[in-house]
Every structure is written in structure tokens, then in C-alpha cells.
Design brief:
heterodimer; A: mainly alpha; MetI-like fold; about 80% helix; about 0% strand; B: alpha/beta; Rossmann fold; 6-stranded mixed beta sheet; 4-stranded antiparallel beta sheet; globular; binds adenosine-5'-triphosphate; binds magnesium ion
């Protein structure tokens, strides 16, 4: 059987990408279809799961009232600010402790001890400190994001090939050049691992914090809907979290592919 | 045929040049020699309580090609690293000189290692430009990098990532990087050790050509005695941290691998190496 009836048509890069992204979405689409059929046919009670069409309808309703955009924006803003703060501090400590043994001796063991406290366990304390305003959520997100970025930055810098560093010295690179052209570039793959881990933790922290202590945001919207038994809004909120998480991860991957174009793992075939 | 089979036969594999000979450059190049003379006196190095070099005395003439052979762990790399300022000697001195003038700047020396040590995140041409150091931003430096890349026959790969190059190509980029600043001393620490026999022979030719062209002083550490004899003006055997043998190779260039003269010298050096191995 000939599986490739139009070989020259199939070969263009655009169509290959199109086919690939369609393949990625095949299973999710199938699941939604089965879900819709199960609910419409009455096999699955709407008290357990609303139909996809109901969820879309709820989304449309909230979009028109402006509630959806407002809550999404609030959640997005919290996530980004928390990530920026926690990520920068983690990156700074990772650089310092990766580059300097003395800095590591002073800070590392303390940071490792703090790391063993699950940051979500601090929620009651954080509520007592900051109440349920923005600071509380941003603090928790920043704390959660700090560790993966710190650890992976430090690890990345430590694992830079010392032979390359020696080569840089022999060829008369200044300390700044050595840092910028050799050490940081060598640490970048590991830093990206930290960023992607951090993004996962960022959404998780935000979901928990918003459902427990918030007066706005997607998590708050879900908790409100639960009070009024609006199952479709609850499901909508969950899906929005999933989409936001996916979008953040895709952005990180895109950035990774651009910055690590030299890496054998990212070479176009 | 596997590469290991080739490697074993390395000394007798040769491609006789189609034309009788390249310009007969039997003597080291040029009238005004670009390379520096090296003077080493009583150089010692120990790591902790472990003595590695026990007093090396050596005078290398400007532009000379010196091969250094010796058993593994005899201190060859340590000697090179001392001369490059990568290690501090425990005792003794060394200096570079241009005629009567003493040169203290170690930047005049470049090195090539067994591993190419290219920056994986920089294109081939950017890697060659690393060799220009601070001159990278001066006018015409880009042309120089490109010309050097052309000399190692990798011009068409200038925008490629190092990851896509073969082992031999990577070493050629590494050679271009070492030579782009026209160094006056080039130290080579088993630069061809990881290559297959055929690539190694063509790299040896390239190395010889570049040396004849540029006239730097070359210090080549190698395990391959045949390579030492085909390339060098002088072969030094290091044993027990001291120079055990120092012979001049006065065969005309280009030299034929496997010719009787080369084989005879090779035998002499190997005898010395084995003698060292048997007397503890
Ligand atoms: N940085 C170091 N610290 C401690 N010992 C070292 C160091 N560098 C080299 N040595 C020791 O010095 C001795 C000589 O090492 P060197 O690398 O110079 O040998 P070599 O002749 O180059 O060997 P090979 O042919 O295997 O490369 C070895 O015993 C080695 O263990
Ligand atoms: Mg060595």
C-alpha cells in the first residue's frame, strides 16, 4: 500500500509542521468528542461533569461580563511577578554560589535547609503575615520558583567544562568575556531546565494560594462557582489553568530552542 | 576495514604524492625566523610529594620543530603546561627569546590539545576568532580568521556549529584558532591522538605545511614515534622526569613514512623507550 501518495507535497516544511501539530492535538480532540457524546447521551450525569458545550457557554457568558478577562489577568500578573522576583533571586544566588566557593560555603547549607520546608506549608503563616492581599500570593510563588532556578543555575555553572574555561584563559579572555562567552553559555541548558521546573511550580503554587486565600483570580473564580454549584465554571477554571500552564511551557521551549540552537538536541534534522 | 586495523598499520600507510615533491623546503623556513628560541634551565616540578620533572635542561632554536615522546605519565604534558604558564615550576627557569631579546609575554605561545576544546555555542568562524583574543575587534581580523579557516580547508563550514563536524574537522578548526594570531610558539599536546590513521596522516601534512608557512617554533608531544620522526627536526625522549635521549632528524622533507631512514630512527627511539620501561 502506498502511504505517501504525494511525496513532493508532503515534503515542504510548512505542511510537515502542520501535520505534526495536528498529530499533537489528535488525542485531546478525541477525548473532548467522547466526553461530549457521553454527556449528551446521558451516560455521564451533568452533576458530575458538564458537557464541553456547557463549558464553552459558561466561558462566553463570563467573557461578556468581563469577569473572565479580569480574573485571568490577575492570575497571570501574580504568576509573572512572583516568577520574576523568585527567579531573579534564585538566579543571583545560583551565579554567586556557582562561581564562588566562599559564597557557597556561606549560603548553600542554609538554603538547602530552607528547601526542605514545603513552601505550601507556609500558607497559614503567610496569611497571618500578609492577609489575603497580593503580597501573600506573590511571596509564595516567588518562594516556590526560587529553588529550582537556584539549584539548576548553580549546577549548570559548576558543570561547565573546565577544559573550555582553561582554553578561554589561554586565549586571553577577560574575566567578563570568560563569564559571558564560556561559563554562562555552558550553564544555559541547565538554567532552562530550572526555568521549566519553576514554571510548573509557579502555576501549582498559584492554584493552591488562589483557592485558599484570594478575592480575585482564576482560583477564586472556581471557589465562588463551587459555592453556587456552577460546575461548568469550575471545569472552565481548571481548563484555563491547564492552558496557561501549557502556554508558559511552550514559550519557555521556544526560547530554549532559540538560545540553544547549537545544542545537538535542538538541531533541525 | 576498521579504523583499529588502519591504526595498527599506521606507519606503513602512505599516499605517495603524485608530483615528485612540494617545494623542497628541507631547511626551517625564512631568513628572518618568526619563531622564538626557548631556553629551559633546571626545570623541576612536583605535585605534592610526587616529583614529575627532575631538572630539564633544553635549548630549542627559533623555528625548530621538536617532538617530545615518552611513556605515559612521564611528564610531557606537565612540561608543556609549565612553558605555557598553566602551572608554576617548583624550581628552575625558562625563557623565550627573539635573537638576543628576551620575551616575557606568554601570549606569544598558543596550544592545541588532544580535545579540540571548541565553544559548542559559537559557529566555526567565531571559534577561530577566539584565537585573535583582544584583536578580534580590529579591522581586517574577520578576513584573517576566514583566511586561516581557508588554509585548513574548512571555509565552507564557517557558519556551522561544531557539533556537526567530524573529529578531524574539529581539530582543524582548533588548529586554525591556534594559528590565526600567528603565534611564535605552538605547543601541541597529542593533537592527533584521537584521530583515525588516515585523518592523522593528512593532519600531519597540514601541520607541516602550516609550520613551513608560518615558521613558528613547534613543540609536539606525541605517542606515535613515526609521527615524531616524520615531522620533527629533533626528537626528545623524556623518561623519569629527565631527558633520556635527544636526537636530530636531518632527513629531507617531505619525508616518506615507512622509508628505511625513518624506520631506522624510529627503531632507535623505540629501543630507548622500551629500555626505560624495563629498568624500573
Ligand atoms: N594537576 C596535577 N595534580 C597532581 N598530579 C598531577 C597533575 N598533573 C599531572 N600530575 C601527575 O604528573 C605525572 C605526569 O603527568 P603528565 O600529564 O605530564 O604525563 P604525560 O607524560 O603527559 O602522560 P600521557 O602521555 O599519558 O599524557 C602523572 O603521574 C600525573 O599523575
Ligand atoms: Mg599528556
Amino acid at each position: 500500500m502506498n502511504l505517501r501518495p504525494f511525496p513532493e507535497w508532503r515534503q515542504t516544511r510548512f505542511t510537515r509542521r502542520l501535520t505534526r501539530s495536528f498529530t499533537h492535538w489528535l488525542v485531546p480532540l478525541l477525548i473532548i468528542l467522547v466526553w461530549q457524546v457521553a454527556v449528551s447521551s446521558g451516560r455521564l450525569s451533568t452533576r458530575i461533569l458538564p458537557a464541553p458545550t456547557d463549558v464553552v457557554e459558561a466561558g462566553w457568558r463570563l467573557l461578556k461580563s468581563g469577569e473572565l478577562q479580569r480574573n485571568m489577568w490577575v492570575s497571570f500578573w501574580r504568576a509573572m511577578v512572583g516568577f520574576a522576583i523568585g527567579g531573579s533571586i534564585g538566579f543571583a544566588f545560583g551565579l554567586a554560589n556557582g562561581l564562588s566557593r566562599r559564597s557557597e560555603a556561606v549560603f548553600d547549607s542554609t538554603l538547602q535547609m530552607v528547601r526542605n520546608i514545603p513552601h505550601l506549608a507556609l500558607i497559614p503563616l503567610v496569611i497571618l503575615w500578609f492577609g489575603i492581599d497580593e503580597t501573600a500570593k506573590i511571596f509564595l510563588v516567588a518562594l516556590g520558583v526560587f529553588f529550582p532556578i537556584y539549584i539548576n543555575t548553580q549546577h549548570g555553572i559548576r558543570s561547565v567544562d573546565p577544559q573550555l574555561v582553561e582554553m578561554g584563559r589561554i586565549y586571553g579572555m577577560t574575566p567578563w568575556e570568560l563569564f559571558w562567552r564560556v561559563i554562562l553559555q555552558g550553564a544555559l541548558p541547565s538554567i532552562f531546565v530550572g526555568v521549566r521546573f519553576g514554571l510548573g511550580i509557579m502555576w501549582l503554587t498559584l492554584i493552591v494560594a488562589e483557592t485558599i486565600a484570594a478575592s480575585s483570580g482564576i482560583g477564586y473564580m472556581a471557589m465562588q462557582a463551587r459555592e453556587f454549584l456552577l460546575l461548568d465554571v469550575v471545569v472552565l477554571s481548571i481548563l484555563i489553568y491547564a492552558l496557561l500552564g501549557k502556554a508558559a511551557d511552550s514559550a519557555a521551549r521556544l526560547l530554549e530552542r532559540v538560545c540553544l540552537a547549537w545544542h545537538p538536541a535542538f538541531q533541525e534534522p | 576495514m576498521s579504523t583499529t586495523a588502519l591504526r595498527r598499520q599506521a606507519p606503513i600507510v602512505d599516499f605517495a604524492p603524485a608530483t615528485p615533491a612540494a617545494p623542497a623546503a628541507a631547511q626551517p623556513p625564512g631568513d628572518s625566523v618568526h619563531g622564538l628560541a626557548i631556553d629551559v634551565q633546571g626545570l623541576r616540578k612536583s605535585f605534592g610529594a610526587n616529583p614529575v620533572l627532575n631538572g630539564i635542561d633544553l635549548h630549542v632554536a627559533a623555528g625548530q620543530f621538536v617532538a617530545i615522546v615518552g611513556r605515559s605519565g612521564s611528564g610531557k604534558s606537565t612540561l608543556l603546561r609549565l612553558l605555557l604558564g598553566l602551572e608554576q615550576p617548583s624550581a628552575g627557569t625558562f625563557s623565550f627569546a627573539d635573537g638576543a631579546e628576551r620575551i616575557d609575554n606568554l601570549r606569544v605561545a598558543r596550544v592545541m590539545f588532544q580535545e579540540p576544546r571548541l565553544l559548542p555555542w559559537a559557529s566555526v568562524i567565531a571559534n577561530v576568532e577566539v584565537g585573535l583574543g583582544a584583536d578580534r575587534k580590529t579591522a581586517g581580523s574577520g578576513d584573517r580568521a576566514l583566511a586561516t579557516l581557508a588554509a585548513v580547508e574548512l571555509e565552507e563550514k564557517r557558519n556551522a556549529w561544531p557539533a556537526v563536524l567530524s573529529g578531524g574537522q574539529k581539530q582543524r578548526v582548533s588548529l586554525a584558532r591556534a594559528l590565526v594570531s600567528r603565534p611564535r610558539v605552538l605547543a601541541l599536546d597529542e593533537p592527533l591522538g584521537a584521530l583515525d590513521a588516515l585523518t592523522r596522516i593528512s593532519m600531519q601534512r597540514l601541520l607541516e605545511r602550516m609550520w613551513l608557512d608560518q615558521g613558528f617554533t613547534a613543540l609536539l608531544v606525541t605517542h606515535d614515534v613515526a609521527e615524531a620522526v616524520t615531522l620533527a627536526d629533533r626528537v626528545i625522549v623524556i623518561d623519569d622526569g629527565a631527558i633520556a635521549l635527544d636526537i636530530r632528524i636531518e632527513l629531507p622533507r617531505p619525508r616518506q613514512r615507512g622509508s628505511a631512514d625513518v624506520a631506522a630512527l624510529e627503531g632507535r627511539i623505540l629501543d630507548k623507550l622500551f629500555a626505560g620501561a624495563e629498568s624500573p
